[in-house]
Amino acid sequence: xxxxxLEEEYGLSEAVVDEIRARDQRQLELFLKLTGGSAAVLxxxxxxxxxxxxxxxxxxxxxxxxxxLALLGAVIGALPIALxxxxxxxxxxxxxxxxxxxxxxxxxxxxxxxxxxxxxVRGDHGPRPGVAYCARCDAWLCPDCRGRFDLRAIAALRAxxxxxxxxxxxxxxxxxxxx
Length: 179
What we know:
Oligomer: single chain
Distance between the termini: 15 Å
């Protein structure tokens, strides 16, 4: 980064940029903990509920089927949980006051490149102007996707799945830090 230009035009120093990135990283970690914990609690609740319902008629079959049905319910419920957790993270850990200035700097000085959210959600690999890095999402975002928290949540879940397990064929997942 051009530190002189950061200071003059945007009022940012390297320390402030590092602080913004550290806060964004804390927000990401809090989001993942809240989303993962909430989905795990939902899975546990659904498992107990299904088993309790089947206990009188088929307890052994309920032991086998309850975790699978609960997993299906937790996967379906994960997207609304992720959206609620995303809003909760913004309330619990608000953005840095200078984060907007850093985004404007990045947008003004970024080159044209593909947006990771567009790749993961829409399958669009085309380059877009004004793409900036978001440490909170650990992804490169175009101006269209920057305000779409629903698409960002879907992309974060798909990127986490790609990092944790083998990549799905044809997923098109790319690492934002490769460039």
